[in-house]
From TrEMBL:
This is EAL domain-containing protein. It comes from the Bacteria. It comes from Parasphingorhabdus flavimaris. Residues 24-274 form the EAL domain. The chain holds residues 401 to 679 of 679 of the full protein.
Length: 279
């Protein structure tokens, strides 16, 4: 009967829910343990100048290899770390380790570090950043923090205070994944923002998709008129690269240039370029 089928459906639903809850609890346990042991790595993805092809720096990207699960994607574990209240601690670790690594890069190269919206609302963030700079000797003027549009929404006062404090210290702020979050364009000039990173979902539709092409052009123009730098992320093909270079994006990041690689590899890459330039 229909009622039986309903009951069976409900039973299955309950089992699936239980399984999901169980899986999630196990993930939480593993993540807490990794956090306690600071058992994370950082990969670095190089960024180049779209006009010259020269490196301008790299973005630090968090990596977690769980002994049981293998590599877990940031998109899977970062939201959990945020909910569990672990992200400020993990973020502090990323800042410190990335600044230490970047302190041995050639002096013209910048370091970008992602900051979760939860970290941005933590009043201790500026102190954490200053501490990482002090411990590593990495200069504030070469550090960029990447925040998202959504993080600016509805928290004007605290976010403004934090961003202003960071700016006064010489640190630059980028708006990551631009075009995908909730934001109002008025944020762009109200907050001290130095750079816009055009989200890869637009870039990856280039050059064929007319809508994405218009959006990329419009963002690049907006950035230029507000005197911000523009980065295009997620460049995978020569055609995308050509479009971006032609339409006023300053910097480029994507698998076409390099995937995220480990700290030893990136320094090798940077040193080879520097010695080639000197030769
Ligand atoms: P994001 O900051 O926008 O970083 C760029 C993401 O795009 C990275 O994914 C990178 O590997 C990927 N990517 C770069 N070039 C290409 C490309 O050409 N094609 C494709 N398909 N993908 C490309 P990843 O490392 O998985 O990180 C995902 C997101 O996780 C990041 O997006 C960032 O929002 C977050 N995340 C990563 N590390 C941290 C961290 O230390 N702290 C915080 N709060 N978030 C982080
Ligand atoms: Mg980023
Ligand atoms: Mg990015
Ligand atoms: Mg992004």
């Amino acid at each position: 009967t229909a009622k039986r089928a309903d009951e069976r459906g409900y039973r299955l639903f309950e089992l699936t829910m239980q399984e999901a809850t169980q899986r999630r609890r196990l993930l939480e346990v593993d993540l807490r343990r990794a956090c306690m042991r600071e058992d994370f790595q950082i990969a670095y993805q190089p960024v180049i100048d779209s006009a010259t092809g020269a490196f301008t720096g790299a973005e630090a990207l968090l990596r977690w290899t769980c002994p049981k699960r293998g590599n877990v994607q940031p998109s899977e574990f970062i939201p959990v770390a945020e909910e569990l209240g672990l992200i400020s601690r993990i973020g502090a670790m990323v800042l410190k380790k990335a600044c230490i690594d970047a302190a041995s890069w050639p002096g013209h190269l910048d370091l970008a570090v992602n900051i979760s919206p939860v970290q941005l609302l933590d009043p201790r963030l500026p102190q954490t950043v200053f501490q990482a700079l002090e411990d590593s000797g990495f200069p504030a003027a070469r550090l960029e923090l990447e925040i998202t549009e959504t993080a600016l929404l509805g928290n004007d006062e605290i976010v403004m205070r934090t961003l202003t404090e960071l700016r006064d210290f010489g640190i630059r702020i980028s708006l990551d994944d631009f075009g995908t979050g909730y934001s109002s364009l008025s944020y762009l000039h109200r907050f001290p923002i130095n750079r816009i990173k055009i989200d890869k979902s637009f870039v990856q539709q280039l050059p064929a998709d007319a809508g994405s092409a218009s959006i990329v052009r419009a963002i690049a123009q907006l950035g230029q008129s507000l005197q911000m730098k523009i980065t295009a992320e997620g460049i995978e093909t020569d055609e995308q690269m050509a479009f971006i270079a032609e339409h006023g994006c300053d910097d480029v990041q994507g698998f076409l240039i390099s995937r995220p690689i480990d700290a030893d590899k990136i320094i090798g890459l940077f040193q080879r370029e520097t010695s080639k330039a000197a030769a």
